[in-house]
Amino acid sequence: MHISVLLEESINGLNLKSDGIYVDCTLGYAGHSSRILERIKRGYLFAIDQDQDAIDYSKNKLDKIGKNFTIIKSNFSNLKTELQKRNVDYVDGFLFDLGVSSVQLDNAERGFSYHYDAPLDMRMNKESSFSAYNVVNEYTEKDLIRIFFEYGEEKYSKSIARNIIKYRENKKIKTTFELAQIISDSVPMKAKREKHPARKVFQAIRIEVNNELDILEDSIKDALSMLKVGGRIAIITFHSLEDRIVKNVFKECTEIDNKVKGMPNIPTCYLPNFKLVNKKPIEPSEGEVKNNNRSRSAKLRIIERIK
Description:
307 residues, alpha/beta, DNA polymerase, domain 1, seven-stranded mixed beta sheet, 14 helices
């Protein structure tokens, strides 16, 4: 079962208007979308996802709440194009929940998890031809080290990459358990006791397969450009690199230009168009973490257009 993380905090943070237009950029299994739709009886919801399994499930779920929604099968990197195709130029709020859904993680055949033996896959969009198999079996040692270190912040990146290359000399790496075993054999015993040794590497490969970080910054900027005055964007991240991107984009558009900073009366045209709703990220309560361990690394940042 999928449990939406920071559900109430993100929905409340959007400051929903009953007649507003909202976009859930990461529909998933409709946890957040359901709550939005319940509150915008005279408004409209657009929900974006590239996973057909999630779309089929969510359409059925949302149909029971209302008909004032459209599901767009696409990646959120195309949000501006897809919305403008539907004659939508301005929006009251955007939500991004950047985590992998529990349903995807728990579905063994999707290959996201090191807990289940399955073909190496990790594609959010099952129609894509590029998967974890390609990364693990075709990338050079240098590129494996880079993605493990940059996207997984894995300190044993070199030894893991070296052992993957060595294993590949005899046979292709086809399953999650094969890969998890190679990773486990590449790290010291102390690292195995702390957390599952494959966790960071699997995360890094998933980010690479789905190009998650490269598309994030441009997508946020597209959402900012379409936001109405008084509208808000709420973004939930689960990874320090994602959070850094969100933090930096938000900071860039809420700070006063250095040229006029410190002036006694700053002209309105020099003041930022956006403000941070929460200066520090909102994190899950102890109770939420206890009920859903996967929420432990989540952070929520919210921004509002003020002019």
